[in-house]
Write a structure and sequence with these properties.
Length: 168
Amino acid sequence: MTTPILGITELASNQAQPEVTVNTAFRDLEALQYRALSRTTAAQPGTPAEGDVYILPASPTGSDWGSLAVNDVVRFTGGAWKSLAAFEGISLWVNDENIVVSFDGSAWVTVGSVRYTTGSGFVLSGATGTARIDPANGIYIFDSLPISDPTVAGQVWNDSGIMKISAG
């Protein structure tokens, strides 16, 4: 039997080697909770490291990735790639983009974020616009921000000149 959302194998009564099932579940949870190295790498890496995680883009290639579906989360463990189907609501940090993405049921979308880089102030970004704030120079730049509260939690919007982040 498996869990209804993640499809993680549950322990059976009097199961032989229960640690294998539990350890596999821990690795699946780890892959789906923390970070992916990239969501744009289509070519299967030749020398992946144990625990590497990727979100598959369109047309993945390679002996293992070539048969997998776009948007799958894949992790390298025990010398092999394991595919985990994305589900609506899962969010992952993407290392090579320094952003959080969330799967909306059909695609991975950028979640509104706040970043600070020394000397450049804050950068807030959402699906439909960006706001840059440099408090040292009093610069506030709003680029294509919606003017009504979006329905997406974390998205930046402009409320009569006051920048806000939507609660959803």
